[in-house]
Structures are given as C-alpha cells and as structure tokens.
Batch of 2 targets.
Target 1
Amino acid sequence: MADKAILYDATRCTACRGCQAICKEWNENDEIIPTKQNGVKSENRGSNENPKDLAPNTWLKITFNELEHYGKVDWLFNRRACMHCTDAACVKVCPSGALYKDEAYGITGFNKDLCTGCGYCVEFCPFDVPRLEGSTILGKTKMSKCVLCTQPSLNRLDAGYEPACVKTCPTDALLFDDREKLIAIAKGKVAALQAKGFTNATFYGEKELGGLHVMYVLNDTPDKYGLPVDPKFPATATAWQDIIQPLGWAVGGLTILGLALNYIIAREAKMTKAIPGKKEKK
Amino acid sequence: MIQKNEAVVEKYSKATRILHHIHTAAFIILFLTGLVLFIPQLGFLAQDSWTRILHRIAAAIFIVAPLIYLILKPKAAIEALKEAFTWGKEDIGWLKAAPRYYFLSDEEGMPPQGHMNTGQKLWWFIVVVFGAFIALTGAVMWFLKTIAPAAVLQWMVFAHDVAFIVMGAMLFVHVYLGVIHPMMTEAWRAISKGTMSEEYAKSHHGLWYDKQMKKDNEKGK
C-alpha cells in the first residue's frame, strides 16, 4: 500500500483549533480546564495560543507565531504534532520496539503497552514531539504522542477513515491521502502562492528526514513557522546504535570467549603442572 | 591471627568486605536492569517500568554505600583510592608477563606484586573512575531529564552506555578471576573471609607481604 500522509496548508488555517479538540476527544485524552474550584491558576501568556506546549494528553496543537511577514505584522498559524518521519530517530533508539515504522501507512506507530518509559525518543526526536507522563524521578513513566489515529480499537485508518483532525477541519487546511498525491497538490499550491507574490513560499516535508508523513504548505520560510529549517537525524543516535552498541556486544562476547579459553588452559595447567603459587602438599 | 595448621594474613577488613558485597549486589542489579534495554526481546520485562524503579534503588545504594564507607573509614578509603592511582614498575613487569600467564599459565615471569596485583588494580581503577562517571551521567538522566537540553541528554545516554560496556565486560573478568579461575583459590577466600594464607600472600603479593612483615616487626619491637 502506498504511504499515507497529512498535508497542512498554513494559508488556509484559521486556527479554529477544531483539530486540537477532536484529537483529544477521539483519542480519549482528557483535558482539565482550570477553574477557581479546583484551584489551578490559569495563566495569561499574552497569546491566544493554548495550551502552552505539547503534553502527554495533548498530541496536537496549533501554534500562533506573531511576526513580521512580507513587510507587515502577521499571525502565522502552524500545526504541531508528530511528523511521522521516514527516518525516525525515535524508532532507532527505542529499546523495546514500542515505536515502529508502520508498514501499511508509513507512519511512526506506537504500541504503548511495550513502552518502558526510558524517554530516549524524547531526547532524540529532531522535532521535540514525544512527551513523558508519570514521574521521571521515580522512573515509572510512559511516552505519549500522535499515532495518526491508529490506536488499538480507535483505529480510524484501518476502518477506512481519515484521521480525526483532518475530518474535522472546516477549511480543508488539512488533507489526508496517498503521500505521492499530496506532494503533487502541495507543489501546485506553493507555485500558486509564489505566483501571487509570496516569494518565500515553501513546501516542507518532502525530503526532510527521508520524507515526513505530515507535510506543510507555508507562505514563508519554515523558521517563521517555528519549524527547524534543516532537521537532521541526530548523529548521536547513529553513533550510539550503529557503532557503540554493536561494539559493546563484540566486547562482551569476546571477553566471555577469552575467559572460556583461559579456563581451559588454566585447568589443564593445574592438572599437569605443579603451580608455584599454591603448592598442593597433600 | 594464627590458626591451627596454617599461617594467615588479613587481606581485607570486615568493613571493606561488607562494602564489596553490597556494591557488587547493587552493580549486578544495575547491570541486569540496564541490559534489558539492549535486548529488545527482553523489553517486556521493563514494560511497567519496574526495572527502572529497581535500577534507581540499586543506583542509590551504588552511590551511597561507598560514601558511607568514606565517612566511617576515611583513612582506609583514602588509602584505597590512592592505590588505584599508584602505578609502578612492578605493574609494567606484570603486563609484560601477562600474555604468558594467559596462554601458558606461567607465573614465573611475574614480578612481586603489592596489595593488589596489576590486574586487580586495573579493575579497581575502572571501578573508581568509571563508577564515578556512570553515576554522574546516570544522575543527569535521572534528575535533569526534564531540565537539561536534549543534546546533553543524548550524550549522557551515549556515555552511560560506554561506561556500561567497559564495566560490564570487566565485571565478567573480575568474577571469573575471583571465583571461577582454577588457580585463584585464595582470592575468593580473601574477600569472603578476609584472610589469605601466608604462602599465597608471599608468592602472589610479595611486595605487600614484605611491607606488612616489616610493619609487624616494628610493632613487635
């Protein structure tokens, strides 16, 4: 089956945040709204952006970037969630196989039951997306992130539906389809934007990290939208998984082999030679 | 300290032996609960994070036990730490003679050794240096997980792993030489009971034995 993907067109997004709400609803990620009764202080952060950041129960959020844009102040909205990279660093460093590349859709799947809570994915993700729930001090944690609506028993893709965020989007800023089809659509959109005078218009996600499964049509450069301009697969992940880890197995294995060999030699010597150290007088 | 048939010398004090056993137990728990992360098929063992909790408890013991020893026996602790960093020409001689010992079980070429022979001292050096290093990198991941920059934590994971490989491989060597090697009959006795026969001390730790004798004689006078 062809890889599936989401295309987010920032120029069509009105930041209604319907996607944010439906994401929580469909995936059963409760949100506690602070009230006076339960004593949680609600904070004014000088922006309509809410919540502040991704969280174990917030897999998707719309960011608000207020900045200068083609000579005037503008408000650029962006969709922030798992990018479902083809070369996913999180999958590379996951020790238990909880994170995996989904064969059918090409997305980065996650089996929460297998998650040990080590949090390596949190550190190695080039987009800073995975979040840990639970106490890192105690060590009892689980990771949580967008799985593109493929949670067991809540799997929309297997049922033939688009992800909940795409379904709910009223302006078609979100599209879900075969990745190849979306690339063609995105290129058309960017060409149209450039023709209109948005000379910095960018198509983001075609090549980044082997190809993202969440792609972006932006009418300015990615950094204006808070996206890393040239995200890289972390070199530490390669050094760790492809060099040190195999080396560790080799060192451990050779050590045991070397000791076994020595055991044979030493036992032989003990039986045949008189050993100067411990003279057996009996 | 003379028993019926055999002249013995004290090799390790009771406090040292207790520290050794506690530290070993903690390290083996740390080793096994860490190893789980390198064998994906064993990942299910860590599923509900209980190996991670165990790893933290063992880590606390691994760090606190030597500190308690340092407080209770500061003199012995400092002397032992000095030993890890004191290397002489008997060590070079030992290293030169080591291949013959490994392949031919030939001890003749070994120069007289101190309280620890070069191999033991090498392990002790690794325990001190890599032990501190693995504790430090672990502490960063433990307490600064949500604070430290991601790049720092990436390197901590990497460094913790390097220390794990070095210490893990050397642990095999240590256990082998201590309890499995057919000719090291007195090493286990020294760490479990504290004593060693004079015979063995003379032949395996000549420098140390002579020094101890001198001390005893001076005391005797």
Target 2
Amino acid sequence: MIPALALVLGVVLGLVLQPTVPAALQPYLPIAVVAALDAVFGAVRAQLDGIFDEKVFVVSFVSNVLVAGLVVFLGDQLGVGGQLSTGVVVVLGIRIFSNAAAIRRHVFGA
Amino acid sequence: MTERMTERMTERPPLLRRLLRPRLRSVDLLVAVLLALLGFAAAVQVRSTQDDGPLRGARQEDLVQILDDLSNRNDRLRTEVDDLTQARQRLSEGGGTTAAAIEEARRRAEVLGILAGTLPAEGPGVELVLRDPERVLGADVLLDALQELRDAGAEAVQLEGPVGSRGEATSVTESVRVVASTALLDGEDGVVVGGVELRPPYRFVVVGDPPTLASALGIPGGVVATVEQRGGRAEVRQQERVVVDALVPLEAPEYARPADD
C-alpha cells in the first residue's frame, strides 16, 4: 500500500513541481525510468509469487537503473548511444512483457 | 484445485494484513522512496517530452546532426541574403544613375532648347529699339546689331517689329526668335527675318549680361553710332528681366543623324 501511495505521490510531485531535467541527465532519464519500471514489474510478480524480498527489490531497482544508465553512457562514448538506448528499451520491454504475462497468469489465472 | 484455493486463502491473510497494516521497516521506506522517485522521474519525463517538442528527447548526435543541417541552411540563406543585398544595391545604384542621366538629359535639352529657340527664355538683358522713320535701316544694320549682341554674350534673342512709340509691343507687332539659322533679308516695307517681314520700328529683346550688352552696342563706331549716322534712332534699355518667348518650330532633321562617338 505504501509503495503504491509513494508512486502516486511521486507522480503528483513531478506534475506539480514541473522541474527542468538537467541537460546531463536528459539522455538517461527515460532509460532509467524504463529500467525502474522493469524492476517494479519484477517486484509485483515476485510479490504475487510470494517470493518478494525488499532487499532484492531495492538492489535490482538500483542496479537496473545504474546498468541501464551505464550502457547508455557507454553507447554515447562509443558513438552508438542511440542504438544502444533502443536495445536497452527493447530488452527491458521484453522483460516487462514477460513479467506482465506472469502477473496476468496470477491475477486472472490465465 | 481445492488444494490451490486453500493455499491461496492461507496466503492471503498475511498479504492483506501487510497491505493494510504496513510495518515501517527501513527497507520498506527505501522501497517507497524508490517508487516515489520512479513516479517523479516518469512524470517529469512525460512532462518534458510533451513540453518541448521533438528536440527535447533527441539524442546528442541527432541534435548535432540537426544543428549541422541548420548551420548549413543558415549559411545558404546568408549567402542568398548577401546576393540579394548586392543585387538590390546594384539596382538602386543603377536606378540612381538612370535618374541622374535623365536629369542631365533634361538639363541638356533645356539648354539646347534655348539655344535652338524651341524654348522660351527669360532673364536679365537689354531691349534695343531701333526707330527708322526714314527707312534707312536695312538688314545689314540689323545683322550688325545681332552680331554685336552675340559677341557680347547674348544667349537668347528675338527681333520684333513694329513696336509702339515707347518701344512696347502692340497688337500688330510680330516677333521672331533669332537663332543660328535665322536669315535677315531686306524686304519691301522692312526686313524679312526668318521668313517673316518685320516693319520698323524694330526691337531686339536680348537675354544676357545687361551692362556688357549695352556697352557693346554703345561703343564708338558701334551699332548705336551707325544707326544714328544713318538717320535712325537707337535706344538701349537695360532690364532686370526680359522675356524671349517667340519660338522656332522644332523640325527633326531629315538626313542628319547623331554620329557615334
């Protein structure tokens, strides 16, 4: 319950404050958000599986964001930032889909 | 199936309880903070993507590419602006030259018109009235007077006759503009000037420097002396303003054409 409320609070804060994204963070923010979404979906699935562990969630969340950012950063340095960003989004998207499918099986039993 | 249901039933209470009465461990707090961060970041990202058009989310190399394109286009447009500016300058200068040429041509046409007698002229000058009651003044005297006047710098001349007793033009007075091609001949009752017979008294209306013209006419052995000697009377009046308004009809030369420089 508290995590859901926190999520809503964050969204509301973001909409109300409307901060400007620092230029240095601009390439990483969307990737970080997608990576974090992946972690959240994984957490929801684990919760439904009954194997949710806060520590695991925190570590996976942070490492997901960091690795995604790192990959994009490396891609930028290598001159393939755009392609790597797409790759990261694709991989994370697949994971989100598979997690979503597992969650669906849990919730709807199908 | 029944087994699974019971399993889920037994699983539910702890989950519900945990959802309804959350324990506030530090890890839970961390999870909440992370999710709040996620919500915040997502909202900000969505916001900025909506706000700032396609460039906001564009990657660095894309932006560089776009910037390059814009720079190239800017250069092209700047070159075009330079070309157009130069063209405009050329055209305006050309227009100025044309206007100046027209002005010059107009000025020359006026000068030539005065010289050729096709334009009226006015200015300071003299009036020379020659009275000839005894009909002793022929074309030669008038021609001498005309040459003397030209020598003295007469710029426009017309010859009139007959004028009134005070030397004024009357209704019978005929006026002839005297130009380079004007011929003076003795006529029956007077002098034929440019094909028009004028009767005495004659009057020269001359535009030029009045003192110079007057002194040229008055020199010993000059026009005035000759006329007096012949038995006529000559009268020179310097005027601040005289009007030479008789015109020579303008005829285009039939054969002569301007020669190339």
